[in-house]
Amino acid sequence: MMGNSATQQDRCDSSDSDSPDLSNLTPFLNIPQPLTSSTRSVMQSSDFNVDAAITSTSLNIKLITTQQKLLICENLDQYEKISLVYLVASDYKTASETMLRLINNDYIFNQFLTEQLKSIDSTKKIIEALCVIQNYEVLKLLDYKKSELQTDFSPLIYHCAIYINKVRKLCYRIMENLTMDEEQELLQAIKEDVGHMGIPFAEYPYLEMQFAYLFEKQYITDNDLSNITNLFKALEMDKYVDILNAKKRPSANIPTPMSSRQMQSTATDKSTANMGSPNTSGATQMRPKQSDLNESDVYPMDENNPGFVLIIENNNFYEEEDEQFQDLVIRSKTALEVRKGSEHDSRRLKDIFGRFGFEIEHKTDLTHLQMLALIREVSHKRVTENQSSFILIMLSHGLQNQIIGCNCVPLNVDDIKKNINSKTLEGKPKILIFQACQGNDILSVQPDDICTDSPSPLLSAQYPWQMHVLELRSAVPGFVSFRSKTSGSFMIQTLCDVLETDDNKESFHDICTKVNRIVSKKLVQYENNTVNMQLVPCSSTLIYKYILPPLKPAM
User: Fold this and answer.
1) Count of structural domains within the chain
2) What pLDDT does residue 306 have?
């Protein structure tokens, strides 16, 4: 831990690293030998292109007004926007490009929606797509009734579509019902199979993006799903093979499974958990509702299952060469330096939160897309209903409201917050800790031992906060944060000190206030001037106190 003074050392050196493979995010299971062209069978369009039982709707669908368009933009999270683009884009190339640009620029969706809403036919596709992705809250704002939508569109029926493309909906329904293990196995199988076919494999954080790319490359087509069907066969996922091979899908014989978001939901209208509910005989007891909280106004905390901590640590950086990201790459006069000393932070964080009883995942050197994919996977699929909270800690270089991937492409903090808004985490505290600069200005002159986590200033748009979120940043907007190469960063080391020495009966917000007070007093003697180094701001939309469980003794 750094004291009130620091000695001079050489500046941190810059370093390049190879782009990490997306498959490193989580281990894939072994799969059978990839399929070759000789093992493929072509599914004729007449065998697959099954018309819905209904070909029109009784709903009176009207053009969406400008005000209603804004309501759609404001009330869809990023995953829902990605899904909607996938379902309604005019072609797969447009869908791929739009979804990719949407990750770092929310205005792209506004533009896309504006183009789509120019005709009544496109408007009908939007309404049906909103029904398919199960966002009845937005549809209610557009004056549509849930019961009528469910009757007319049959959103959970695989082979039923009226205005949107039937095959796209079929693939979307399958994507929604894949388990995490199934998704990982399928992605690995696709990666190996397209490699044998000479098709480059593109790594994307959303399955919708992956499928749009496969459609674009004609690995899958509207008339031929044999490639993906054979992969499901090889993986022994027979339920999806049956779905893809079905000429018709009578609901009386093949029950419609719930989407993954429905299975994780509690009792919100948006999740429509009452539609096709699975057997819940082995389900665990739900967490207490907010109305059931005790008089102390504290979030429920299971001391045996306090939550999940995800640590993303980027230390080595290279400049992304992919043309589609060139306009997003941070180009500074000097390459981003290696974040020496960060290993002290991650080591202490794993030790401290492990002693609290948290499940911990630690990943290093991820691109902006890999960071987003991992954050979404953990918050939506790996955090369980029994876990009391979610903590995301990101250690990297940064800009104002942005965290930089190892490929020098930034990821907006606002996009991160949107993607942790999962059903499992509804009403639970979500703690975000960012050890990264928030600009290029400095509050002091630092000795050579102190490194900053900032390449150059860059602003990004601000978005509304989600509820039940506490965010701790290592610097105020516009300023850098500091990290010692020999002992780690000021904020992380101080946070660990406070967590280790206090009795932890204080709320986490109070702990952050104490950390800010201590960090603000850390002074460095340099050329006979004593100056204040940095401030650590904490913002919160928590509505109750978040109190950690008792700390277990160090091993």
Assistant:
1) 2
2) 95
Same domain, yes or no: 211 and 330: no
Domain span at residue 397?
Answer: 308-540
Q: Are 387 and 308 in contact (CB under 8 A)?
A: yes
Does the pTM surpass 0.85? The reply is: no
Tell me the H-state helices in 49-91: 66-75, 78-88
The rounded distance, in Å, linking the Cα atoms of 463 and 303 is 34
Q: How confident is the model at residue 272 (pLDDT cuts 50, 70, 90)?
A: very low
Flag whether pLDDT at 310 surpasses 90. yes
- Would 427 be classed as within a structural domain? yes
Q: How many CA atoms lie within 13 A of 66 on its CB side?
A: 0
Which runs of consecutive H residues, i.e. helices, occur in 76-119?
A: 78-88, 92-102, 107-116
Residues 392/436, Cβ–Cβ less than 8 Å = no
| Residues 126 and 221 placed together within one structural domain of the fold | yes
Nearest C-alpha neighbor of 494 from the set 474, 464, 468: 474
Is the domain of 391 the same as that of 501?
A: yes
Kindly state the average pLDDT of the residues 291-302: 68
346 touches 276 (CB < 8 A): no
Do 89 and 235 share a domain, yes or no? yes
| DSSP state letters, 426-455 | TTS-EEEEEES-SEEE-SS---TTEEES-S
CATH no. for residue 534? 3.40.50.1460
